[in-house]
Each structure stands twice: as structure tokens, then as C-alpha cells.
Amino acid sequence: MKMELREIASLLNGEVEEGGDLVITGASGIKEAREGDITFLANPKYAPLLETTRAAAVIVEKGWELSCAKPLVRVENASLAFGALIERFGPKKIEFPPGVHPMAAVSPKASLGKDVHVGPFAVVEEGASIGDRSIVRSAVYIGHDAKVGADCHIYPNVTIRERCEIGDRVIIHGGTVIGSDGFGYVAVKGVHHKIPQIGRVVIEDDVEIGANVSIDRARFDRTIVRRGTKIDNLVQIAHNCDIGENSIIVAQVGISGSTSIGKNVILAGQVGVVGHVTIGDNTIIGAKGGVSKSIPPNSYYIGLPVMEAKQYKKTHAALSRLPDLAAKVKELERKLADLDRRLPGHAATEND
Amino acid sequence: MKMELREIASLLNGEVEEGGDLVITGASGIKEAREGDITFLANPKYAPLLETTRAAAVIVEKGWELSCAKPLVRVENASLAFGALIERFGPKKIEFPPGVHPMAAVSPKASLGKDVHVGPFAVVEEGASIGDRSIVRSAVYIGHDAKVGADCHIYPNVTIRERCEIGDRVIIHGGTVIGSDGFGYVAVKGVHHKIPQIGRVVIEDDVEIGANVSIDRARFDRTIVRRGTKIDNLVQIAHNCDIGENSIIVAQVGISGSTSIGKNVILAGQVGVVGHVTIGDNTIIGAKGGVSKSIPPNSYYIGLPVMEAKQYKKTHAALSRLPDLAAKVKELERKLADLDRRLPGHAATEND
Amino acid sequence: MKMELREIASLLNGEVEEGGDLVITGASGIKEAREGDITFLANPKYAPLLETTRAAAVIVEKGWELSCAKPLVRVENASLAFGALIERFGPKKIEFPPGVHPMAAVSPKASLGKDVHVGPFAVVEEGASIGDRSIVRSAVYIGHDAKVGADCHIYPNVTIRERCEIGDRVIIHGGTVIGSDGFGYVAVKGVHHKIPQIGRVVIEDDVEIGANVSIDRARFDRTIVRRGTKIDNLVQIAHNCDIGENSIIVAQVGISGSTSIGKNVILAGQVGVVGHVTIGDNTIIGAKGGVSKSIPPNSYYIGLPVMEAKQYKKTHAALSRLPDLAAKVKELERKLADLDRRLPGHAATEND
Prior knowledge:
Three copies of one chain form a homotrimer.
Chain A: E1 3-4, H1 5-11, E2 15-16, E3 23-24, E4 26-27, E5 37-40, H2 49-52, E6 57-61, E7 72-75, H3 78-89, E8 99-100, E9 105-106, E10 111-112, E11 117-118, E12 123-124, E13 129-130, E14 135-136, E15 141-142, E16 147-148, E17 153-154, E18 159-160, E19 165-166, E20 171-172, E21 177-180, E22 185-188, E23 191-194, E24 200-203, E25 208-209, E26 214-216, E27 222-225, E28 230-231, E29 236-237, E30 242-243, E31 248-249, E32 254-255, E33 260-261, E34 266-267, E35 272-273, E36 278-279, E37 284-285, E38 290-291, E39 300-303, E40 306-308, H4 309-320, H5 322-342, H6 348-351
Parallel strand pairs in A: 4-5, 5-6, 6-7, 8-11, 9-12, 10-13, 11-14, 12-15, 13-16, 14-17, 15-18, 16-19, 17-20, 18-21, 19-24, 20-25, 21-26, 24-27, 25-28, 26-29, 27-30, 28-31, 29-32, 30-33, 31-34, 32-35, 33-36, 34-37, 35-38, 37-39
Antiparallel strand pairs in A: 1-3, 2-7, 22-23, 39-40
């Protein structure tokens, strides 16, 4: 694969000032780049890397002031533009041709759209439907009356249980389980009786879900992950949760039952959220935060249990000085006793 | 599906005061209910929902004092009664008919009980046995000499390794692994040598295990989960653990090797327990708690590391006032120096 | 299986002082041992168990001073020696004979070494290669151009995605996913655009990976787990991480993107590490620790966020006395006001 720099600029709706006839033979990260590669600068704070990279040319953003001996391609969003380019120079994309593998088990009562790929050992049950161009990989299970939209990619060993609904352009990575029973019991004399979980899970369009995630079906209604939200690996979402649009749920987060997460929320790694609370839009919860109550929108909370970030920082700064504080109090007690002794009218009975 | 309210009352061993001839056409949660639905009140504190629900009738408990314009069915346990009812009005239950799918790989030396269902791409190895009426779904793996009891439901993509033993009426959700090797090594000059893990896992009757759980086999003997215990998704149980009866292990809990958990214990979400300790019967550990020592029975512990709940609350209330406390100490130091200066016999050498 | 104690000693390069003609019929842990069993003492602090064990003989280390009525076999490393012995006395090892199961889907363009076992419903894609004597169990997925080395054991339901590389003697337990996409997006006006993840995962020789683990592929280059490192269940390793040699990553640890972990590091259970930091060689992070910055080598850190262990212990001891400290400060304020009133020259305006 070879492209002139000016062709690349044109492909990315970008501008090249000089070196337009340079021939680019690969694309790579700024640290990994080799001779002939094009790379990109994600953030002007990394500008010193322009000095050391072996790349032949660099994609940067319009308006960044940079001094660089190498030809620059200026675009609106460098990271995004580079993402588009990488498919040309990256490893050959694997094709999953339309068709059902002879060793798949697809019910004659399932409904498959145009150009669907179903891999070996996949199961598609009665009443299930799969939208156009979707890719269902090996050993995926799609339950009775479940719906998978168009242009989805469901990776190997995923389980999607009965009646769950997956939107368009959804990606689900290996080992994930959608629609397992919510965790609900009634205790009668110390014995736990299972509460039927007859609801389902709805995953809206453009959601991506990582590997080995669990999203439980609702007791009656639905657990929902709304449009554009991205979920990392090993996340737990309990029954009846409502996860808002365009949120980011980082690895190993756990969200308990009936909790609502707003739009554009970020839950950092290993956060835990109790049940029946609400986290407002645009809020960030720092890594390992323990959320035990509702959190307002546009906030930044940290800690276990979480506090507003400024309070957290003040508290934890004070905490790290706590041994000193204890020593100071001891010293104060000593001095005060000393003062007391030196005072006229000192009453021995009071302090001794 | 249609039933008169009086038929429902009779089915549930309940009582209906008025409206017995009302025709019920569905069953749903109190918030989701539509016209013609029957619903239930789980807890009298939610009584205000009786005013707003669209449900036609409500299941409540005998003895609750409630004013409600809608017909009530009074039963012993509303949640339990409703659970029994839901199977009549809920979505049609999926049947898994007895028989072995032609694309399953069942050893001729495995032993299958009466009316067992084995789905496509399931593997049942030599010497394994499956009890009457159990359902083994697609791509489940059941290892050599493993035993699954009667009336179990093993969901897709579950792995049960060799010699493990699963009781009756056990439910295991998708992606779970039972009997992986315990995590044990001997370090010799910085190199870790694997310690053989030749024990197994025993899961007793009426246990339910969530999705993507890992329960490791014992080094010699057995890791055991006792009767009636319920385990949520993404839980880790290490080798040689002993989990008591009727306990509740919430999502993403991790229990280290050789630890014993009592009966009727609740470990809330993301709790971690170190190895070789005991948690007594009826004890509750709050969410995200870090248990680093044995905990007595009938206790409630919270925090990282866990403290008895009352002490935790006192400590954390004090912690949130810590910046104020530091300011107070500073003020005390100032005042004390001031007093000292005003004292007769002030010695400049002492404090200056 | 029967062996004389002297044969066992000779097998283990050990020494037996008396009782060499004793016949041993089994091998077991010191607590579980029955008559006729041989057992071992892992650590001299457990010496009192020598009094109570039912075992006929005990493997101990040269140089330990022990008084024991039972015959002892003295070796270099008791645990290691016992591991070697257990294979003789333990349950019969399951054989996975060479050959491809007729219900596996192996591409004719995949390359299989000598004596490879491929189980039912396994998928080996075009360009993939599997080394000599490796065992690929049921429903394992091995992607395009992926490499698995020699003498590996890949347990059921594992997913290894395209171009990933697994060394020799690697063990991967059930449900684990290697090479899922890194979690990376560019936000443009609140919408998250996926960043292509075109790198791969490299797992070096002698690594063991537990059940339901996720290791993401790099954005460009590689995520790497180096030689001899052992990873427990449900661990998350994000894109571009570099995990050093002979480290121990305990269950439910999460490591964020581009972080480097040194050699011989121990991350205890449920530790979380932020992205783009380094943990030095030989460092230990205590259970549930939250690492938010780089940590030097040869250290021991604990807490949330982590502190050097000594500081942590001091701080947390002070924390547990914090309610007392607050009470002391209140008392000091009272006494100081009292002193102030008793002072000659007391100015009412100052303190009242």
C-alpha cells in the first residue's frame, strides 16, 4: 500500500503545506512509527515527540501552533482522521462472508436479513431475527424471539438470551452475557425463593460492549443501555438499570438494580453503584468510587464512599497529615496542663 | 390469558374482599402495570403507589393496613405469591424438550437421566452423569466424571470441569466456569512452579450461580458452595473455600483461598475477602468492604478495611470533619501561645 | 498405586531416615490425609499439624528442626516435591489424544503441529498455527493468523482473536478472551467514535491465565504478558499494557491502558491501576489497592489511594482513633477557654 501525502490529505479533508508528493507506505503510532509511516499527534502537549518520531509525516489539528521539520497534514480532528486512515494501511481486514456456516444451528423459524454471516457452532433460536449485514461469530447463542439489528458484530462465545433486543451497529465482544436473570429472591424463614425475571434487555444503536460483561434482564420491564454508550470489559449491570446515552462505563464497574445513569456520564474503572439511585448527566465518578446515594448532574465525585472531588482532596490531604495532627494534639495537652499549673488559683483537684 | 380475581385468590391461597368477579388479563410491576393487570405491593412503605398504579387489582399481605380504592387480594407473602402467578400471565415459558441434539457431543460412556435436554454443541464427557429433567444448553461443557443433579438448568457456554459435582435444582448462568485450577504456585528462585490442583468443586442443591462466575477447584479436597446459596454475576471463589447455606454473594465479590463463609451471610457487591479467614453466620459485609481478618457471627461490617458498622459510621463522620478539626487545632495552638505570653512567669526560652 | 517410602524418597531426590519400607497408598494434604497417605509440611510454623495428621509419612525440608514420630522424607522444597508426587497418587490424569475432532472447524489453511488435540466445536481460522502437543479444548476459538505455541492447554470456551501470539507451555482457563478491542474512542460533540485497535496481544512462554479473564489488543503495537507471569480469574488487562516476567496478578485486578508492570510484582486481589503508569520490579500492592501514580521498585503499597505500607499503617491507626482525637480537641477548647477566663488581664471581648 502506497499513497502520496497529498492523496491522504484529500482523503481526510485536510490540508498539506509542503511535501505533498512524499510517498507514505504505512501508518502507525508516533512512538512505534518506522520510516515511510504517517502518524498523528493526539494532543499538542505531546509535541516533543515530533522531534523523536521516525515517521515521515504527521497528522495534526488545524490551529495548533507547532514547529516541526516534517510535513504536516492539518485536519479537524487528528485522532479521528487517523482512525479513518488506518484501515488503508493497517493489517488486512478480515472478511466474514455472508452465509450460514453448515455447522451452525439456525432455526427455520428464525429470520435473517440480507448478507448476514453466521459462524460455525452459532445457535439462532426460533423467532429470533438478525438484521442486514450483521456478523454472528462462532458459538454465539441468540435466544428465542431475540432481535439483533443491522451491521452488528457479535464476537465468539457471546450469549444473548430470549426476547432481548440489540440495536443497529452494536458490537459485543467475546464471552459477554446479555439477559441473564436478575438477582432477586424472597427470603422466607431464611430460605431464598427465586423471583421470576420475565423482563428483558434492550441495547440501543451504536453501543459497544466489551468482553465477559454481564447485563441482567429486568424483573418485568427492561434493563436498557441507551444509544452510543460504550461499556468496557467485565462490567456488571443489574436488572432494571437504565444507562443513558453516550456514557462511558470503564472495566469492572458494577451497577446494582434499578439504578439510572444519565447521559455523557463517565464511571471510571471498578466503580460500584448501589441500587435505586440516579447519577445525573455529565457526571464523572473517579476510579474505585463507591456510590451509595444519588449524585447530581455535572459533578465530579471520588472516594469510598464518594465525596465531591474538592472535598475529597481536602479530606485526603488532611488524612495524610493525621498522624502529625494527633502528635500536635498530644503536645497541646501537655502544654495546656503546664500552663494550668503555672496559673494563679491552680486547683490541684481539677486536673490531677 | 384471562382469570377472575377470585380464581387468582384461590390459586394463591389468598382472600379477596370485593371485586372477586373482576377479570384480570395480565400481571406486572406496580409502576409498569396497565389496565386489566394485577400487580403487588412488596412493602407497605410503597403504599402511595396504590394511588397512581394503573393496575386493576393489587396483591398485598394479610395484616397490612392500607386504604385503597382497588380490589385487594390478601396473601401470606405478596412477592412470593406474585412470583407464582407471573408464570401464568408472563411471556410463554420456553420449552427445552427432552433429547440430545444431533450436534451435541455426548460420550457413549456418559450417563443421562430421564427427560434430559442436551442442546447443540454441548459436550458431555466420559463418565459424566446428568440427572432427570435437567437442561444442558448449547455449548455447555461437562467434564469427565462430573455429576449434574436433577432439575438443573445449565445456560449456554458454561464450563463444568472434570469430577465436579452439582446438586439438584441448581441454576448456572451463561459463561460461568466451575472447577478451573486453583491459583497456587511455589516460587523457587523467582520462578513460579504450578502446584497441581487435584481437588474438585461441590455445588449443593438449590444453589443459583450468575453469569461469568469463576469457582476454582480445591488443591486436594473440595471447594464447596452449600445448599440454597445464591451467587450473582462475575464473582470469584478461590480454591478450598467453604460457602455456607443460604448465603447471598452479590456481584463481583472475590473470596480468596481456604476462606469459610457462614450460613445466611450477605456479602454485598465488590466485597473482597482475604484467604484463610472465617465469616460467621448471619453476618453482613457492606458493599466494597475489604475483609482482612475473621469476622464474628451476627455482625455488620463496612469499609476498607472493614470495621464494625457503628465504629465505621463514627469514624467516617469524624473523617468528613477532619479539615475542620485540623483548623481547630491550628487555632488552639495560636491561642495557647497567646495565653502563654500573657502568663506571669512567661519564659521566653520555652516557646520562642 | 503403592510405593515404598524409600522409592518415593529416591524419586524426589530426598532422604529418608527410618521407615523406608513403609508402603504408601495415597497422597493428600496434611488435614485431609488418611491412613497410608503421604503428605507434606509447607512451612515449619504448621509443625503442630504433625501431631494430628493421620498421614503415614511426611515430606519436609532439609534443615527444618522437627520432632515427629512419623517417618520423614527430607527434600529441597517440600511443596514442589509433593507436586511432583501427586501426579502418581492423584486421580487418573485425563488424556486428550492427538487428533482433530470431526465436529471441529479447522481451516485447511491453518497449520497444526505434531500430536495436537483439537476438541469438538473448536474453531481454528485460516493462517492460525498450533504448536506440537498443544491441547485445544471444545468450543475454543483461535482467530486468523493467531499463533499458539507448543505444549499449551487452552480450556473450553476460550477466545483468542486474530494475530495474537501465545508462547509455549501456556495454560488458559475457560471463558477467557485474548485480543478483544482496546477501549478507545474519540469524543466529537459528545458522540464517541471508535478508534481502530489494530495491534495484538503477545503472551510469552510459561504464562498461566485464569478463567474469564480479558486481555485487550493494543491500538497499534502489542499488549504483552511476559514469561512466567501468572494471572488469576476475572482479571482485566487493557490495551498496550506491558506485564513483566514472573509477576503474580491476583483475581479481579484491573490494569488500565499503557501501564507497565515490572518483574516479580504482586498485585493482590481487586487491585486497580490507572493508565500510563509504571510499577517497579519486586513491588507488592496490597488487596483492593488503588494505584493512581507510578510506584518505585522493591516497595510495598496499600490503600485507596495507595500509600507506602508503613505510612498506611500509621495513618489508619490514627484514623481508628479519630473520634477520640475529635473529643480531645473539644476538651482542649473547653479547658483553654477556662484557663483564659482565669488569667489576669482576661479580656471579655476576645473570647466571648
